[in-house]
Amino acid sequence: MEGRFFTSTEAAEITRCSRRQLQYWREQEIVVPTVNTTGKGRNVYYSLTDLLALTLMEYLLSLGLSFEVCQLALNFLRAVEPKLFEHPLHNKSGRRFMLWQSAGEEALRCTEFDEQKAIAAIQDGRAIVPIQIEALGKRLEKRLQLVGTPS
């Protein structure tokens, strides 16, 4: 399954993102899929790694976060722990991250999960969004099963 690729239509159905979102994110180089130039024309294909990145974006956007914050989180995770995306359905690292608003700041920052910072932020009425790649991988796996794609 790790070597399987998905069309834009399949990726949209699996991740619950619209095809227009996928196109925009491709144009903005947020999630750039593998492009297959063989066969008729240019077909775009997404890997499981791409689907995990799309699942993360969809999750964060569904919480009402801005596109910029979602992009910041994805870029942070790719930079700090690129191995998190290597085997999206088999990631058992247990590493947790969070988007949080520190005291006196309006912008959210992405960091490794820190329980004390999270509790302090919540007690002060500031924003905190947990991110666990393993849980997102499980979400992706369930969606693959729902659309009839073997995992």
UniProtKB/TrEMBL annotation:
Span-the-membrane segments of this chain are none
SUPFAM superfamilies named in the record = Putative DNA-binding domain
Extract the InterPro entries matched here: DNA-bd_dom_put_sf, MerR-type_HTH_dom
Instruction: Please state every residue range assigned to the domain named HTH merR-type.
Output: 6-75
Pfam families found in the cross-reference section: MerR_1
Q: What is this protein called?
A: MerR family transcriptional regulator
Biological source species? Stenomitos frigidus AS-A4
